Amino acid sequence: MKYKICFVILSRANYGSIKSLMHEVKNSQSFKIQVVVGASAILDKFGNVRNIIKKDGFKIDGNLEFQSSSLFLSSMSETVANGISKISHVFKSLKPDFVFTVGDRYETMATALSSIFLNIPLCHTMGGERTGTIDESIRHAISKLAHFHFVSNDDARKRLIKMGEDKKKIFNVGCPRIDTVKKI
Prior knowledge:
globular, alpha/beta, single chain, seven-stranded parallel β-sheet
């Protein structure tokens, strides 16, 4: 039986941060990859990344339009609310065994909440890092929701342990962006 791992890409930056792992999962005999793209990742004004994902050899299993176009601060909460509804619907259809989310952008909160509400184990990269911005609050919230943590350094690992996360479920794998840089 192949485990289905669903990667949710909601910004161009998220894809760059995780594509090396996506290739590993795609080429694995143990996993089946699922790819869902949405929010700013599918908008031209934010560098629509769908064509890059397809060019890199991935099939897109879901395209979700839910990015609020408002210029108000409330656009973040509107985007997350719309995202929860749409992502949950796709998860019910795809039935992944695991969901993989990247980092700290506010849109990823919709992925995390959809995953845990549907009792799908959530895997999170880049948890435990510090930035001093709203991204840090989002990142820490997602870390508390996640079941498995793939951190980029030992300081991040230690922070997650201090936050009460199970050290057996924290894996210091380094930053996946480095894999991409090494290929250049």
